[in-house]
Amino acid sequence: MTATAVPTRPAALAPSWDDEPTGGPTTRAREWCSDVAVLTWRNLIHVRREPAQLSDATVQPILFTVLFVYIFGSAMVLPGGGTYKAFAIGGLVTMNLTTASMGTAVGLSSDLSTGVINRFRTLPMSRSAILAGRTISDLLAATLCASIVLLTGLVIGWRPDHGITGVVGGVAVAVLFAYALSWFTACIGLLVSDPESAQAVGLVILFPLAFLSSCFVPTQGLPSVLRTIADWNPISAVAGSCREIFGNPNPAGAVDIWPAQHPMAMALLSSLAILAVCVPVASHLLQKRTTD
Fold it and tell me: If you average pLDDT over residues 10-20, what whole number do you get?
């Protein structure tokens, strides 16, 4: 007697991020948060295995702080008095967080060029969780970077006049701006073809912006055109906010323009504006790069 083969039903394909979401809003929100947490942890594991990735958030802040305070600061006279050491720390926090945000562009571009994100497409995860996981892990790196600048400042004699509350407030403003910039650099990483290009483009854009600001010198001594650019540069507003919240000298407060008179408002509005523009743009670019 010959056995009759019984046709078997093909196994259902595992859901992917191109499938329609299932479940109610609460379920989808919980799953999205879980995806973000997993991807954030994945990025942190990469850093643990390759600590050199954190050099821009650990070694660079120490070098820049010592370099600018002891070499450039020795010849600097601030309008209205005050020590350059007290003036510089707020700018150094801002500058280091600005340049460290380029890591988002490099990380995303690397994941795209190595095919990691293509592997994610086969998994039941949210597409937007990739961007959120990357920017949140870089947010943690930015917090570490700011902490190292402040610790280095304390070692060399800097003191915040407004105590620990001022330190926390200043770091919060700077880290929010760094988080907004990470979404901007995410757009760069999604537009270029490889990590090297992402690094180069980010460097060309962010370094001039960081130096054409009040991070290291008061804007009063700049030529008129450069002074106008520096006074309206959001990075100047963030640096000025940090100085005022720390209780340190902020010569820009004597400049009679709105961003200099209200640096915290300018810093917060700039951060929110960058997020409002770059979050949807980055999401669109990721969808475009990962759609067959």
Answer: 47
DSSP class per residue in 121-174: TTSS--HHHHHHHHHHHHHHHHHHHHHHHHHHHHHTT---TTHHHHHHHHHHHH
CA distance 212 to 262: 19
- Among left, alpha and beta (phi > 0; psi -120 to 50; other), residue 3 is beta
CA–CA distance, 179 with 131 (Å, rounded to integer): 12
The helix (H) or strand (E) run that includes residue 49 is: helix 25-49
Residue with tokens 């190292």: 148
Q: Which two tokens stand for residue 176?
A: 């929010």
3 vs 31: CA distance, rounded Å? 46
Quote the tokens at residue 124: 């039941």
pLDDT digits (tens, 9 = 90+) for 240-264: 999 999 998 888 767 788 998 999 9
List of residues 6+ apart from 138 with CB closer than 8 A:
43, 100, 101, 103, 104, 107, 179, 182
